[in-house]
């Protein structure tokens, strides 16, 4: 999953980035509220870790702004302030959970896992659509119609995960590039097409009726046509 960390304390941010990457999270970092809010609006992040006290724009304001714009990604709010009123304000602003500094690494990771489970749409820890299921722990793609499974590469997994979390939505090539590679670069745009092709071949290999449909001038959408 891709995490956006909005934290102005450099040492804290560097420590969190190292911890999260060791746990196989993809992490992008913004050091002020204005840049952080702009990044969060890109719709490529699965979870936001948001400090309250930020230059430019407070975490409370960022959370409220994201929720007003219909952004639904889970938000974990961080603060050095532990008063109950601040916690209530954070939750009322749109945060899903609240963690007071200093905190233990294992508690942070447990809360992130809990927030991540809200994204998964099946009790067995998989993302499902049509006749396919993606196991988020093993990167195995299963087709229920054929019973076939195949393991996805890291990039294939992230592409499939992104489509499944956003099923019913059209995803642009720019969104996919930013989501999978983390920054906008023409070279990465070309890689999107390559890895979409790889992922389509895996869907075909397991015999699924799900396809990644290219919509000219718009982007890509997951489609399912049940076989009769």
Report on the architecture of this protein.
The relative contact order is 0.10. It is built from eight helices and eleven strands. 43% of the residues lie in helices and 22% in strands. Strand 8 (140-143) and strand 9 (149-151) form a beta hairpin.
Low-confidence runs of at least 5 consecutive residues = none
Helix-and-strand structural type: alpha/beta
Shape verdict: elongated
Strand order of the largest sheet: 2-1-3-4-5
Cα Rg: 18 Å
Order of helices and strands: EHEHEHEHEHEEEEHHHEE
CA distance, first residue to last residue: 35 Å
Classify the beta-strand content into a percent band. 15-25%
Total number of helices: 8
Keywords for this structure?
five-stranded parallel beta sheet, 8 helices, four-stranded antiparallel beta sheet, alpha/beta, 11 strands, 228 residues, elongated, 43% helix
TL;DR?
With 228 residues, the protein is an alpha/beta fold.
Itemize the secondary structure elements and their pairings.
Elements: E1 2-6, H1 10-22, E2 26-30, H2 33-40, E3 47-51, H3 59-68, E4 75-79, H4 84-93, E5 97-100, H5 105-119, E6 126-129, E7 132-135, E8 140-143, E9 149-151, H6 154-165, H7 173-181, H8 186-205, E10 210-215, E11 219-224
Parallel strand pairs: 1-2, 1-3, 3-4, 4-5
Antiparallel strand pairs: 6-7, 7-8, 8-9, 10-11
Helix pairs in contact: 2-3, 3-4, 6-8, 7-8
